[in-house]
Amino acid sequence: MPGIMLSNHFQNGIETAKLVWSRLPSSDDVETEEELERRMNGGGGAESLDYEVIENYAYREAQAKRSKLFNWYYAMLKWLIALLIGVGTALAAVFINLAVENFSGWKYAVTFSIIQHSYFLGFVVYAIFNLALVLTSVFTVTQFAPAAAGSGIPEIKGYLNGVDTHGILLFRTLIGKIFGSIGSVGGGLALGKEGPLVHTGACIASLLGQGGSTKYHFSSSWLRPFESDRERRDLVTCGCAAGVAAAFRAPVGGVLFALEEVTSWWRSQLMWRVFFTSAIVAVVVRTAMAWCKSGKCGHFGSGGFIIWDISGGQEDYSFKELLPMAIIGIIGGLFGALFNQLTLYITSWRRNYLHKKGNRVKIIEVLLISLMTSVISFGLPLLRKCSPCPNSEANPDIDCPRPPGTDGNFVNFFCSTDKEYNDLATIFFNTQDDAIRNLFSAKTFHEYSAQSLLTFLVMFYSLAVVTFGTAVPAGQFVPGIMIGSTYGRLVGIFVVKYYMKLNVDEGTYALLGAASFLGGSMRMTVSLCVIMVEITNNLKLLPLIMLVLLISKAVGDFFNEGLYEEQARLRGIPLLESRPKQFMRNMIAQEACKNQQVISFPRIVKVSEILYVLRSNKHNGFPVVGHGRNGEELVIGLMLRSHLLVLLHSKRDFQSSPFPCDPRGVTSRHIWSDFVKPISSKGMTIDDIHLTEDEKEMYLDLAPFLNPCPYVVPEDMSLAKVYNLFRQLGLRHIFVVPRPSRVIGLITRKDLLFEENDNPAAMELQTTSVRAPGPDRRSVGPQEHIDHPLLDSLLIQR
Amino acid sequence: MPGIMLSNHFQNGIETAKLVWSRLPSSDDVETEEELERRMNGGGGAESLDYEVIENYAYREAQAKRSKLFNWYYAMLKWLIALLIGVGTALAAVFINLAVENFSGWKYAVTFSIIQHSYFLGFVVYAIFNLALVLTSVFTVTQFAPAAAGSGIPEIKGYLNGVDTHGILLFRTLIGKIFGSIGSVGGGLALGKEGPLVHTGACIASLLGQGGSTKYHFSSSWLRPFESDRERRDLVTCGCAAGVAAAFRAPVGGVLFALEEVTSWWRSQLMWRVFFTSAIVAVVVRTAMAWCKSGKCGHFGSGGFIIWDISGGQEDYSFKELLPMAIIGIIGGLFGALFNQLTLYITSWRRNYLHKKGNRVKIIEVLLISLMTSVISFGLPLLRKCSPCPNSEANPDIDCPRPPGTDGNFVNFFCSTDKEYNDLATIFFNTQDDAIRNLFSAKTFHEYSAQSLLTFLVMFYSLAVVTFGTAVPAGQFVPGIMIGSTYGRLVGIFVVKYYMKLNVDEGTYALLGAASFLGGSMRMTVSLCVIMVEITNNLKLLPLIMLVLLISKAVGDFFNEGLYEEQARLRGIPLLESRPKQFMRNMIAQEACKNQQVISFPRIVKVSEILYVLRSNKHNGFPVVGHGRNGEELVIGLMLRSHLLVLLHSKRDFQSSPFPCDPRGVTSRHIWSDFVKPISSKGMTIDDIHLTEDEKEMYLDLAPFLNPCPYVVPEDMSLAKVYNLFRQLGLRHIFVVPRPSRVIGLITRKDLLFEENDNPAAMELQTTSVRAPGPDRRSVGPQEHIDHPLLDSLLIQR
């Protein structure tokens, strides 16, 4: 058929531009990219435009073979990258933990030795230490890596939902995140290192997937398979799971976190790979910690990775206890929702007023908060009267007061005698990890007075709210656990008091409180439950944690959205929810694009016209309209702005004649990666294109570069259905088209099942309908006798 | 507009039938059902056909209010049903466990007391006991509930994938499953009760969702919200999770099992509900067990729910041990793949030859297998020489030999002296739960000889393969754990022997072996891992279990598919995988429906013609073709066979004139549930329709009943893309239509985001493109100024 139909319906000029609208400046269309990739890699197909190839069996065979080898390489590479993500994230986590533990260990050791002589001098040293650490953090973030501020989880969530916030996956962000976390956590601010570790994992994954930073010239061509948007998303998902697995030493929790909280599109094959990455993290972290046990890691030995083993605590519970536990759930929901709301207001105020004034204001703000934190954590315990140590004969395990410079309960701080301890200093004047361990600790009845816990709760809650949203890397997990375990232990104190005879342990209530606050703030369910079980290493409390989470999430959902959703909305990351909104059922597709100016291209288009169209609007995708065999107008595909820019920049495809080009040439002129937007740059803009007048008079045949079949919906389809299509398939563009005039066929389940097994017994439950005998459907050979070879008539025009 | 356009393009007769194909006799289209439901519930909309309603604001307001109350009721009902599913499944599990443990406890107690006098008589009693229990099971299944045979997981998986196997969710199936499980497990066959419990949970969920069995007249109208296919699927998913949670006391494992293994479409809102159901199960089961601890449950006390606590075992591992663990993984992959292959052959042979000969053959087969099992489990230990008990001074905890009639290790069976035990009897002549507990038991070095374990492995593996696929309810989890822990312990014996100085425990290796076999056979990853951790109550082995699972699954995948996939294929349940096959990239939509005869209806159609078309083919969906404003042909929707049958059966919509009907009448003549296919019957067929000659001459207006906008794809779209659309959205029918001639608009992410927040600061990262000012997009009022009011022109024709 090629060569026969020198068609008479070419366009020599450019048609009057039609009305098209397409927005999202920084997006790229996965479908189109996959299409292009396939074509560039030589995988011809019925809808491909390499028409000679379709005729040539031998060529297709060769392609199939090459593709098999390529697939094998690709699979190996995927697993290798997953391994490297696991190792890299685990090492980053170990490094952060080592640094933080050593800095704080040293800080507390020095302070404790000074306060033996002078409490004032001790405070000054303590505050200066904190200020210095926090300053390095905020300086790194503001000057070097602005995208490293905050938790990073809303941004990663947005990225996986399809919104590319600039700079979140850069190499400098990774560096800023790691060193910023060390400074801010080591500096004693009311924030954690877990959220930043998730972001760190995502950065590592993304950078590994592109072979390093493009800016620092590490890019590698053997990583080409990962240059599609979908692959990048998969890697980032792996990285998130690795981050959680490393932060909490919770490999299963990591997988579930990635599944429940972060990804928008989940594939079960991916689960397997994510699982592998998490397992690698667990092994590497365990090895590193075993190595540290020998004492080579300074102050790291005792603290560090948060595993708060409460195996010594309460293992059983009675029905009577369900009431106080439900109360903990309700408190968690209320406090969590309040936390979300307060942080939302404060962050919004910061963004609109404070942070517009430049980096200096940001730095001063963080330093002031650091000073405030130092004053509160050092000053409040001074005001507190010390309690006498518990009877050491009744509790032989308890070391009270603990020797200075070690970790543990019963800190002797500003006490008159040696046999006393300061319960407020035990939680306040400590690293957060140790404080949580003390709060969770079992068999330490009446260690804390209700008054101390209440003081701590109010002060720490306020500090956490104020610290949230400053220009340092900040996670909310550990502060959340701190807040929750404080009121949990408070409730526990009352339960111990009133339910005297039961085997009640305050530490268990602290754990439930922690779960409830996280549930009420972050609104995670299964993943949080598993993470709590994994960090406390106690499965027996699982049903209780589930119960508390159910209640706190339900209460929180009554008031507002989850922390990450709120923050994402605040940062202008428009997350597409998994379900359409209710009112969409009453709208049709046409209404959603009612005010659009649709601008479309003809197949062969003058370069100057392309320039004009690209300059005159910000649309990101353009329909391409051609003509069918009988001269009727037909939509032949979708052209992306980014691909047009690549074509304009390379100039290789310009032609002087307004006739279709030979698509064989295209694969020799371009490789697939020409069209890939690098992860760590903004991509080209129209201003980067410089053409001479002669070049502007030339033509460009868009046919080889367009996505020939974007998804379409009829104009009067319910918007809810359109939304489902868009969201479930992760699309970027859908064409709204007129209602079809006829149905060529119906595709049902049976048409998509190509059974290898022709055993008639196996068919007994299948359809009994008569099926016209036809050729083997699995044949991938050319299909020449299709009734309406539309693409042929359209494109085989030589 | 109504009443203006008495159009001139009605059809009075029936157009020449066009070519359409649509199969899947027993399917129903979710989209169409939702559409109908919405219309029947009065929720008008732009694409709805109640055109008067669109004009009437007041009416819509009233509808919106009613709909709010309805939504609240609906949400409450959903959670109530989830609660009931949890309670019901937990009680069913407790009942099965109580019955099984009591029957087997009694059986072993009687046998042990008899063998003190005569081993032959003991064997006879033992065998008769087993035969009697197995007979009740197989009799119940074959005579009363044939769908209760086997594990049920492949069928449930198929149901959730969209294939409705007849009878799997009936009330009689539930009864058959519960009592059949008791008989087959109590009768000592090499099968488990876990798969059947999943099926039981699914049945309970489905029956609760429709308010009980329709056949036994429990149906209730207040459950109407659950009468859509999608709601039923959600409930069944909850039921599956509840089943796993109850079977293994593994609530998180249950959620993950439902997520990873069973469902095909997962929504994160569902996760939350599934999680709740699992938590309820955990609480109920725990309460029941606490109640049983007081000794009210007969023999139940010690055994029953499988929690094999190995907390006393090995907690640490050295790098050296990773090699034998990897070997366990490889063995697991090989044995698992072999198991899948063997069971596939045997089941296929059974289906094709043996089971075709009727129920009597099935009963005899099971009884023979039961006898064989009795002979082996009783006879083989007789041949084994007893070992002397371990030194009771060195191991004060060990009770050797155990007192007759109790559970535990060290069974004295056919031994010459009192201070001996028979290691083969310890695992063979025991309930499987106790046998596994013995195999997992820690600190019992050298309890089993390698020879005994090998004998057991070979015999039990063969028994498990032979038993699989017989006509009794049969799970594969427990046999799998038995097989795996046997070779795991074998490897452990060698490790203990060669790595002498390490703190190695054979029980830990048995656990890893169990994980590896299940991984190699069922190919589950995260869910299996969590289940193993939950049943052994030991989190510290998590990384090792992950490692072993990774290896065994990879090895198994090299040979064949997972057990459930193989069995589903064998049973003719065509599961749609989540990804299209590779060759689909080289096919286009048209090729998939190339040989179809497309049969379409006009909008107004004669009853006799409908009868003729429905009789002449088995298609399940028919396009309806009408005419647009200018007389051009347009596809106006999809009509389902099942809905046509309902209309023909009720006769209420027949009209004598060939003109469009008044759609207001439709909502008064029908309620939504008229169109719902009851879960537990086959639904109507064309043979149930009896019409007089007069009725056959009447007309039917299909417009109010059709799905006005099924998803469409252009004829030359890649089949892989069509597959994604079909699979991701869970569709039943897709129309293949000609390429569109023009693009009315493009829908992008921004068009689907309707922000409540118009804060300009929040927009800073959003699009910078200029957007034409338009009316508030959220308004759901009538949209009269749409450019192409296609539906109006099409349907408002009075």
Brief characterization of the structure:
2 copies of one chain form a homodimer. Chain A is mainly alpha-helical and 798 residues long. Chain A has helices spanning 30-40, 51-55, 57-115, 119-144, 153-161, 171-186, 194-209, 229-248, 251-262, 268-296, 322-352, 359-383, 423-428, 432-440, 450-467, 477-498, 506-522, 526-536, 542-559, 563-570, 589-592, 607-616, 641-650, 663-669, 693-696, 719-729, 790-795; strands spanning 387-388, 420-421, 601-602, 604-606, 621-627, 633-640, 699-701, 712-714, 734-737, 745-747.
Provide a descriptive summary of the structure in words:
Chains A, B: Pfam families: CBS, Voltage_CLC. Chains A, B: It is a multi-pass membrane protein. Two copies of one chain form a homodimer. Residues 1-30, 40-62 and 756-798 of chain A have low confidence and may be disordered. Chain A starts with 29 loop residues before the first helix and ends with a helix. In chain A, strand 5 and strand 6 (633-640) form a beta hairpin. Helix content of chain A is 53%, strand content 5%. In chain A, helix 11 (322-352) runs parallel beside helix 20. Chain A has a three-stranded mixed beta sheet with strand order 3-5-6. A two-stranded antiparallel sheet of chain A has the order 1-2. A two-stranded antiparallel sheet of chain A has the order 4-7. Chain A is mostly helical.
What is the element layout, followed by pairings?
The structure is a homodimer of 798-residue chains.
Chain A: H1 30-40, H2 51-55, H3 57-115, H4 119-144, H5 153-161, H6 171-186, H7 194-209, H8 229-248, H9 251-262, H10 268-296, H11 322-352, H12 359-383, E1 387-388, E2 420-421, H13 423-428, H14 432-440, H15 450-467, H16 477-498, H17 506-522, H18 526-536, H19 542-559, H20 563-570, H21 589-592, E3 601-602, E4 604-606, H22 607-616, E5 621-627, E6 633-640, H23 641-650, H24 663-669, H25 693-696, E7 699-701, E8 712-714, H26 719-729, E9 734-737, E10 745-747, H27 790-795
Parallel strand pairs in A: 3-5, 8-9
Antiparallel strand pairs in A: 1-2, 4-7, 5-6
Helix pairs in contact in A: 3-4, 3-6, 3-7, 3-8, 3-10, 4-6, 4-12, 5-20, 6-7, 7-8, 8-9, 8-10, 9-10, 9-18, 11-16, 11-17, 11-19, 11-20, 12-15, 14-16, 15-16, 16-17, 17-18, 17-19, 18-19
Biased composition (Basic and acidic residues) (chains A, B): 774-784
Keywords (chains A, B): CBS domain, Chloride, Chloride channel, Ion channel, Ion transport, Membrane, Repeat, Transmembrane, Transmembrane helix, Transport, Voltage-gated channel
Domain CBS (chains A, B): 706-763
